[in-house]
Amino acid sequence: MSETNKFQSLGAVSYPNENAFTRITGFKHLTMQERSGASIIFEYPESSGDPYYPIPRTDNDELYQKYRRLADNEPRVSFVGRLAEYRYYNMDKVIARGLHVAKLLLS
After folding, report:
1. Which H helix or E strand runs over 97?
2. What is the annotated signal peptide range for this record (predicted)?
């Protein structure tokens, strides 16, 4: 590890071939933290479990719109993130969106 305690040189590095994992994400790159140590995750492909990305289909969009309308009437409900907003975001956009919504909620 370097003196900046970053595990890798980029926020997310993909490993498509010879490893059991497909990606390593180092969160200090994404959040610009100045703390010691590193927070990383290894992503492993699986054919079962919860889906991580929305599947763009008409029935899914209609369901999202239904929940969106219900949430709009609830002052303490916010949708933030890929599945919550029914969009694909790169991780830097997910974090930026979360920080933006947090600022709005706290102001």
Report:
1. helix 91-106
2. none
Q: Nearest 5°: phi and psi at 103? A: -60, -45
Q: What is the DSSP letter of 3?
A: T
Taking only the tens place, the pLDDT of each residue in 16-47 is: 888 888 888 888 777 777 777 778 889 888 77
Could you say which residues of the chain have pLDDT below 50? 1-3
Q: HSE of 50 in the Cβ direction (CA atoms, 13 Å)? A: 2
> Which token pair is 62?
């209609």
Burial of 43 (0-12, 13-18, 19+ CB in 10 A): middle
pTM passes above 0.70: no
42 contact partners, CB below 8 Å, separation of at least 6:
21, 23, 24
C-beta of residue 48 within 8 angstroms of C-beta of residue 27: no
